[in-house]
Design a protein that fits this description.
Blueprint: H1 9-14, E1 20-25, E2 31-36, E3 41-42, E4 47-52, H2 56-64, E5 67-78, E6 84-97, H3 101-109, E7 115-126
Antiparallel strand pairs: 1-2, 1-5, 3-4, 4-7, 5-6, 6-7
């Protein structure tokens, strides 16, 4: 029996449309960093890889507390009850990758990155 997917088809559809992603971390201090839907890469095992150039406060928080929350959405994807737009809240754990195959893969896609922020998804809830 296969494990139930944490990231729905609707979530993956949202990533096909541009929108802002907010990444909330807390450890040393509560911090919100932003990126774009088009920068998120979902792996076969449903981890989310995000190219990181800045994200220094996020990294300092993750060093203390690896829990993170992400919000993302798109007005171009139909939501619940035919609502024009949908969004997701993702809870997960984070770590930074600075070498290896996934780092190299991401560096080819996003030449500006200095590290990769890896999110292991615990759950993703559709909000709209």
């Amino acid at each position: 029996m296969s494990e139930e997917k944490k990231l729905s088809e609707k979530f993956l559809e949202v990533l096909q449309h541009e929108g802002v992603v907010s990444i909330v971390s807390w450890g040393i201090e509560t911090h919100v960093a932003n990126t774009w839907n088009s920068y998120l890469v979902v792996t076969d095992d449903e981890r989310i890889l995000i190219p990181a150039y800045g994200f220094r406060k996020t990294e300092k928080n993750v060093d203390v507390n690896n829990k993170v929350k992400l919000t993302l959405g798109s007005k171009d994807v139909l939501g619940n009850n035919d609502y024009q737009g949908t969004g997701f809240l993702v809870n997960g754990t984070a770590k930074y990758i600075s070498s290896g195959d996934e780092y190299d893969f991401m560096k080819k896609k996003f030449s500006f990155l200095t590290r990769v922020l890896e999110i292991t998804v615990e759950n993703a809830t559709q909000m709209l």
